[in-house]
Request: fold
Amino acid sequence: MYYFNLRHNTKQENSSKNTFHYLTRTAHFAQHKEHEKVEFIQSGNMPLWAKNSPGDFWGSADKYEISRGRTATVLTIALPKELSIQHRTELVQTLIHNFTQEYQFPYTAAVHNHESSLTGEDQPHLHLMYSERSLNDRIERPAEQFFKQYRPKNPKTGGAPKITANALGQGKNQIKTFRYITEQLINQALQSYAPVKTIRIKDLEFEVKNEVCCLSNADYNQQYGTQLKDVPQIPRWKLHSPDPIITHNLFEIYKTEYENAKQQQEQATLPLSAFEAAKDLQIYQTVNEKQSFYESWVVKLDELSKEVIRRAKLQDYANYDHYLDDLHRKQSVLMELIKFRQTKETLQMGQKILKNDLKLISALIQQYPIKPYYRDQSLHSTQYKIDYVQEQLEILDFIQQNKHAKKMILNHPALSNTS
Reply:
C-alpha cells in the first residue's frame, strides 16, 4: 500500500495561491517544518504572462475562475524512501509528465521530505498541483480571459478549454486510474534502482521484493485472501507507541517471506557448543578419578569454545586464532580422555564434539570479516586445525569399526601428541 491523495481546489473554498506558497515554501510558508527538506520545486506549461511568475497564475485562477469552478487539482503521492534523491527526482519528472504533458496542463510541483514522528525514517512525498485548463490549442489568452468559459465555436474569445475527469471518461474512477498509473511508474523505478527492501517483523529483519500496490486494504484482502486492517488516525500522544496494526499488516503481506527468513535464520545459527552437544548423549556422569582430570579439562576448554560463539556473533576477530587454539587444546585433551575410557559412549561423545567443532570452525570462517592482510595466514591456520580434527575423527571411526585394533590405534602418534 502507498499513500495517494487527490483533492480539488474550488473558487470561494480553497486558495490555489495559498497552496502554491505551501508547496514552494514561500511567503507565509517560508518557515520550514522541523527537519524538513524541500528536494524539488518546478512549475511548467505556464501561459506567457505567468512563465516567470507561476504564483501569478494561481492567484489569477483564484480571481478569474468561473463561480464555484475548480482552480486546481492537487495530488499528494508518497515516494519510496529507498530511492536516492537523484532517482526520486527522475521518478517525479516521469509522474509530472504523465499527469500534465499530454494536455499541457499548467502545474507546480514540489517534493517535501521530513522525518517520521513514529519511526524517524524519511518520508519523501510529491505535491503536484495542476490546472485543468489546457494550453493545447496554443492560443495566448491574458489572465482575465484565460479562466473564462471555453467557447468551442469561437475559441479566441473564450477561456482555455477545461479537460476534466468526466471529459476524459474517468468520472468518479479518476482516483483509481491515477493510483494505478502511479503504481506502475513507482514499481518501474523500484525495479531499476531498489528492487529489494529490508523490513522488520517481530524482531526479525529480512529482505522482500520492493514494490507498491494501488489496491485498498479491502480490495487487497479480497484478491489475495489476507486480513489487512485499516490503520486509524494516530493521536499525537500515542505517536511513539508501537502500532500492532502496522505489524499485523506487514505480517499478512509478507507472511511467506517471514517464514522463509525465520527458517533461514534458524539454519544459519552457529552450532551448539561441544559441551551442550555432549550433554545430549548423557555421558557426563560420575567417572573414576583417573578420568576426572581429563574430563574437567574438556569441560573447561569447551566453556572457552562458547566464547568463540559469542565473539563470532559480535563480529570480533581480534582473537580469532587464539580461540581456534583453545578448540585445538580441547580436542587434544579429549583424545587423552578417550585413551583412558574406551567405551562406546565416550567414542560417540568424541565424535559428536569433533563434528560439532568442524561446523563451528566453518561457521567462524564465514562469520569473521578477516582483514586481507591476515586472511591467508588465518585461513592457513584454520585449515590446519580442520585437518587435525578430521584426522581425529578418522581415528575414532576406525576404532568403532575395528575393535581389535584399539591398542594399536591408541598408540598412534596423533593420540599421544597432546598439548
